[in-house]
Amino acid sequence: MLKDLKKRNFLLFIVCFILLITSTYITTKLFFKRSIESSYITNTSNKKCVYLTIDDGPCPVVTDAILDVLNEYDIKGTFFVVGKEIDGREEILNRIYKEGHSIGLHTYSHNFKKIYSSENTFIDEMLQTQNKVKKITGYTSTIIRFPGGSSGHLNKTYLENLHNHGFKIYDWNVNLGDGVDPNIPVKKLFDNGKQYKDDYSRIIILMHCNFNNKNTVKALPLIIDYYKDLGYEFKAISEDTKEYHYRLKK
Q1: Measuring CA to CA, which residue among 173, 178, 153, 164 is closest to residue 249?
Q2: CATH superfamily to which 47-235 belongs
Q3: How far apart are the C-alpha atoms of 51 and 193, rounded to whole Å?
Q4: Boundaries of each NodB homology domain copy (predicted)?
Q5: Nearest to 206 by CA among 146, 158, 155
Q6: What are the tens digits of pLDDT across the range 1-57?
Q7: Which listed site, 21, 28, 105, 200, has its alpha carbon 20 to 30 Å from 79?
Q8: 104-120: buried (b, 16+ CB within 10 Å) or exposed (e) per residue?
Q9: Taking the mean position of all CA atoms in its chain, how far away is CA 155?
Q10: What pLDDT, in 10s, does the model give residues 184-242?
């Protein structure tokens, strides 16, 4: 009888020991899970950013279609507008502004031979477009983009001159290629939109909204979904956004 009692006590001890180990394991696992979740929430402010930038507008149909896609996803983009394209399309420019997107300046004529004939001509065209945007929207834009990019044009003195006029420059590090060939297939545009380096602290994507950039509209949701799935945060360029330009000429 005493032997049976000892046996039962031993079995009871084993059961209690197993329950204690199991309880400790579950508690520890939950603790680390909550720690990881807490760390993830804390670090969401450090998410990498992607900027969708759209050049050459405003343009009927395509610019509106791009705005429709951005609104569907509740994402803000940056439209670098050409001054001569605004006449007769003031409503599109106003729509860009009223829906909370950024407006940048992309010269007035977009004529490479003219705008790159001198620094003064380039700056005058930016100021002309700036005044036109302000007259229509009431907003004074100070963010600019060189047609074709700043590479080969910008040196230290030129940069200082632009800064003295209050301008900040924004080139790009991902290019859809739709400015050179608007008929690139949607899949190729999507693939081009994924061509970035892992060490980029932010991604600035170049796309266009000319009348013939209809494939860009179709590729845009694919690009947005791709970066959303990677956890990127979408932002519009503003006056507070850190400047991004290519290497200066010596």
Answers
A1: 153
A2: Glycoside hydrolase/deacetylase (3.20.20.370)
A3: 12
A4: 48-235
A5: 146
A6: 444 545 555 555 554 545 444 444 443 333 333 332 322 223 334 679 999 999 999
A7: 200
A8: bbbbbbbeeeebbeeee
A9: 26
A10: 999 999 999 999 998 888 999 999 999 999 999 999 999 999 999 999 999 999 999 99
Which residues are CB-contacts of 25 (< 8 A; sequence separation ≥ 6)?
none
Contacts of 115 (CB under 8 A, 6+ apart): 107, 109, 121, 122, 125, 147
What would the pLDDT profile of 149-174 be if each residue is shown by its tens digit? 999 999 999 999 999 999 999 999 99
Q: How many Å apart are CA 170 and CA 90, to the nearest integer?
A: 24
The set of residues, in sequence order, having a beta carbon less than 8 Å from that of 199 and lying 6+ positions away, is none
**In this structure, are residues 109 and 133 in contact, taking their beta carbons and an 8 Å threshold?**
no
User: Nearest-CA neighbor of 202 among 235, 176, 224, 178?
Assistant: 235
Contacts of 201 (CB under 8 A, 6+ apart): 48
What does the alpha-carbon distance between residue 132 and residue 86 come to, in Å, rounded to a whole number? 8
Provide the residue ranges of all domains of the chain, joining segments of one domain with +: 47-235
Q: Look at the alpha carbons of 173, 177, 180, 182 in this order and tell me if their dihedral is positive or negative.
A: negative
